[in-house]
Amino acid sequence: MMPRLRLARLAPFALLAVAMPAHAAIGEWVEGEHVRLRLVATHDESGALQGLIEMELEPGWKTYWRSPGDAGIPPRFDFSASRNAGGAEVEFPAPERSDDGFAASNVYHDRVALPVRVAPSTAGQPVRLDLAADLGVCDEVCLPVAIKAVLDVPADDRDNAADGLIREARAALPGPGRPGEFEILALKRVDGDDRAPVFEAEIHAGSADDVLLFAETPADWYPAPPAAADAEEEGVTRFRFAVDRKSATTPIDGAEIRLTLTEGDAATERRFHLDATGAGH
């Protein structure tokens, strides 16, 4: 199924919020429309620079995961204007699933903290993190929001409060799972043709009613939300999801599918590379 944005309900322009540079490990909040954002960064005990994008949403409003689902605006975080930062990799905790009967989306409510791995170009020198964030925020209407935030981080500075926020956010990222109890076991193709293949994932977890599985595919594939396929068998639960590949140019052979499994506050993920038959390895 092609992703569907509620264009009739989408504001025609992005609302831009800009902050002056902050000279501290924890930046000032930048107020956007129904959302605010700040940057956090400090050096860890090894001397490596760790960062964080923290967002808080007004009650009832939501923003989207890196893969928004059937409808939504994927976030974009651009650090290219930063100084002495050769690269910045943003990481995402597992989302919630929001299904309003029209579309199922992968979202965050209330607050979300995204860890950022920063690679200074020159070690031992100050870093300026300059972020341009483009977000979608939705309640009864959906708005594109642009926010700019800047944080100057002194060389080799370490801030305990910032370090605590970053550690907390990293602890919320998907982990390795628990073998035999909470893990993603396998992925294979079980039905459909190449234009609309159906995949089945096997997992170890609690009741299928208590877990969610999220599937991410190549950008020109459009997966339906995975749903429990049948009753549990010897502790194994199966989820199936169909993929719309009618307009795809990315071949099945060699494609990557990333699965994220959640149960309460626990989350784990696994990447599979498909062979020509659609089996994941």
Structure description:
The protein has 281 residues and is mainly beta. The chain folds into two domains: 7-171, Sandwich (Immunoglobulin-like); 183-273, Immunoglobulins (Immunoglobulin-like). It has one helix at 160-171; strands at residues 15-18, 30-32, 35-43, 49-57, 62-69, 76-78, 87-90, 96-99, 104-109, 111-119, 127-138, 142-153, 183-191, 198-204, 211-216, 222-223, 227-228, 236-244, 256-263, 266-273. A hairpin with a 7-residue loop joins β17 (227-228) and β18. It is globular, with a radius of gyration of 20 Å. The two termini are 25 Å apart. Residues 1-13 have low confidence and may be disordered.
Entry keywords:
281 residues; mainly beta; Immunoglobulin-like; five-stranded antiparallel beta sheet; 4% helix
Helix and strand topology:
Elements: E1 15-18, E2 30-32, E3 35-43, E4 49-57, E5 62-69, E6 76-78, E7 87-90, E8 96-99, E9 104-109, E10 111-119, E11 127-138, E12 142-153, H1 160-171, E13 183-191, E14 198-204, E15 211-216, E16 222-223, E17 227-228, E18 236-244, E19 256-263, E20 266-273
Give the tally of structural domains.
Answer: 2
Under CATH, the topology of the largest domain is which?
Immunoglobulin-like
Global shape: globular
CATH architecture title of the largest domain = Sandwich
Oligomeric status of the shown chains?
single chain
Q: Which band does the percent of strand residues land in?
A: over 45%
Major sheet characteristics? 7 strands, mixed
Mean pLDDT metric:
90
Low-confidence stretches: 1-13
Structural class: mainly beta
- Rg calc: 20 Å
What is the chain-wise order of helices and strands? Answer: EEEEEEEEEEEEHEEEEEEEE
How many β strands by DSSP? 20
The number of helices is 1
CATH class of the largest domain equals: Mainly Beta
Helix content: under 10%
Distance between the termini: 25 Å
Keywords: Signal
InterPro entries: DsbDN
Signal peptide: 1-24
Domain Thiol:disulfide interchange protein DsbD N-terminal: 47-146
